From TrEMBL:
Organism encoding this protein: Listeria fleischmannii 1991
Signal peptide coordinates: 1-23
Entry keyword Transmembrane: no
Protein name, UniProt field: Lipoprotein
Alphabetical keyword list: Lipoprotein, Signal
Residue ranges of domain DUF4352 in the record: 49-151
Superkingdom, taxonomy of origin: Bacteria
Length: 169
């Protein structure tokens, strides 16, 4: 009789554990998904994308932050992303700038630009503009990113910073 009670207790405990785990891992209902979609739309509009910031008459605008599909990219635990940039030289002299002058922040983690065949880098003539892409290999964790302009040969402190949210498809 003791064996039967012990077996019944174990079976009941297992069934209750499975029921609990199933209930906790249930996928969200459509109402929750709609609410989450609304929240995501609000967070996208609260970023600094398409907002120009100026440093010594150089206007820099991150246009978009997207996931990049590339089957040759094989860094385990990372995803390739691209930030489209627009830079305008409003000075009277040439100005050199490149993707290596930027990095991403996720919390306190600094993510350097990823060398890619069409990453931008050039000397911009006075009153001219440059449109290009900066690539980053980001970790496979969700979060809101910041884009930081910090020239390679510049001062120790970062110059400009944008809140760019999470990458979109």
């Amino acid at each position: 009789m003791k064996i039967f009670k012990r077996s019944a207790f174990i079976v009941t405990t297992l069934i209750m554990s499975m029921a609990l785990l199933t209930a906790c891992s249930e996928t969200p209902k459509k109402e929750n998904q709609a609410a989450n979609g609304t929240t995501a739309a609000k967070s996208t509009s609260s970023t600094d994308l398409n907002k120009a910031k100026v440093f010594t008459d150089i206007s820099i605008t991150p246009k978009s932050f997207k996931l990049k599909q590339d089957d040759t990219f094989k860094e385990k635990g990372k995803t390739l992303t691209v930030v489209a940039m627009h830079i305008e030289n409003k000075t009277k002299s040439d100005f050199g700038i490149g993707a290596g002058d930027f990095y991403l922040l996720l919390g306190k983690e600094k993510i350097a630009s990823h060398g890619y065949y069409d990453s931008f880098g050039d000397v911009i003539k006075p009153s001219k503009t440059l449109d290009g892409n900066a690539y980053f290999a980001i970790p496979d964790v969700k979060g809101d990113y910041k884009l930081v302009y910090h020239p390679v040969n510049g001062p120790k402190t970062p110059m400009l910073e944008w809140s760019i949210g999470s990458p979109t498809k």
